[in-house]
């Protein structure tokens, strides 16, 4: 049976745009729950300015208390050099670097031109090799940008090529605003895979979907048909980018697991445990919203 690998991002992408904030202890409970469901890659937070994203404050502290579970890797998102240093100091050895492929989105998200983001990534790539850090790269708005419209296919491909040349271990194609119309998703995936094969890229190609416009399910299906075996997802479909107007949730992990199982793929995920964890999280959310964003 073929395996589909799920990258669980609830503690990071799931929480970063919500109107409630989990305490470090509650995040820890969430992460523990995810490991018990069977997830092996969990993005537990981001090393960003807490003034920009208060939901992600305390990620360093969280890294200090994560349960060591054999086979489980914990990821942290980084936006720049400083993020790398903070993550390294916190003991994070799996990092995801975010670079948006349009100028407007990159400026809004990480406050620098795309070329500067790339220059920092090149330095981080070298440093990561020396430090034994594994690096994934998020290509944000690679399908569609909320400010600049549909992303030019050639431009998207060029960025994928750059990431493969750099030798990042995982290239994550992110539909940041959930506006990747399925025919465009198919077009890009059909072009990316042969290009990476020609380059002999040995790493992972991941897909990061959002459900803002209801495209996530169709995109996941067509990606599965095209051989994509790595997907990001968030429990209960929480999430979104704080710098994207009207951003909505990630593809729900539950839905993706269900889809994979229906299509005959193994995920290693216990659906009952996941459903329980999701209920717990949604109840916690409701409770927090009712009392007004308190910890
Ligand atoms: N983590 C924490 N603090 C950081 C940081 C990081 N990765 N990078 C910079 N800072 C701090 C600086 O130390 C400085 O602190 P000070 O005000 O106490 O002196 C302050 O942020 C400003 O530094 P500067 O380099 O001018 O950063 P900036 O204001 O241009 O902001 C980011 C850049 C990336 C840190 C900020 O825009 C950010 O955190 N964005 C969030 C991105 C995000 O999480 N998006 C969603 C996920 S994709
Ligand atoms: Zn996202």
Question: Can you describe what's shown?
Answer:
The chain is an alpha/beta fold. The protein has one domain (5-291): Aldolase class I (TIM Barrel, Alpha-Beta Barrel). The protein contains eleven helices and ten strands. The protein has helices at 10-14, 24-37, 59-64, 81-89, 103-110, 114-131, 153-166, 182-199, 216-225, 253-262, 271-291, and strands at residues 5-8, 41-46, 73-78, 94-100, 134-140, 144-145, 149-150, 170-174, 204-208, 230-233. Strands 1-2-3-4-5-8-9-10 form an eight-stranded parallel barrel, surrounded by six helices. Strands 6-7 form a two-stranded antiparallel ribbon. Helix 8 (182-199) links the parallel strand 8 (170-174) and strand 9. Helix 2 packs antiparallel against helix 11 (271-291), helix 7 runs parallel beside helix 8 and helix 8 (182-199) packs parallel to helix 9. The longest helix has 21 residues, at 271-291. The protein is globular, with a radius of gyration of 18 Å. The termini are far apart. The mean pLDDT is 97. Residues 16, 46-49, 52-53, 77, 79-80, 82-83, 86, 98, 109-111, 241-243 line the site of coenzyme A (COA).
